[in-house]
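Bug #77: duplicate submission created two jobs. Keeping one. Sequence:
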Amino acid sequence: MTKRALAVLPALAFAAVSLTGRPVEAGPPTAAALNRVRPADACVRTLMDAGYQKSPTFRRLVQDLQKTDLIVYVSQVPYLPEPDAGALQLVGRAGEQRYVRVSIKKVPNPREFIAAVAHELRHAMELAENPGVVDEESLTALYRGIGRPSCNGYETAAARETGDLVCREMQK
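Kept job's structure:
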């Protein structure tokens, strides 16, 4: 850290206390604090943080995605075709980064929502483990090889198992 950066730290600490009325605390890590898996709004952030804190499997997925070239945006949507609870879409590539959108159907049960996010994050890891997947054609080819056709796309045993495991971990 440079001398100039060090000189600014006391002012930043003062500003944090002044604006919030209390000192900034480090606290436990959260899913939102990690920059590769990005919740679209505060509600999704809260649910993902709960999954990160309570489910070792969810936490490991988020941490593993930090080591990849993927940026994953997670949002809640009002509708997805039945029977899907979630969907993953490869948005594109910019420089060295690949961008993925995860859409999760809004459900009243937070545990089900978190399990659906975990299911889709497992799909994101499948994508991350295959750097040659850069467009819809290569994504389809990947899932033809590792998955099986489902109603609206492809499904993998690993993603189903991950969602089920996270759902059980969230019940504890």
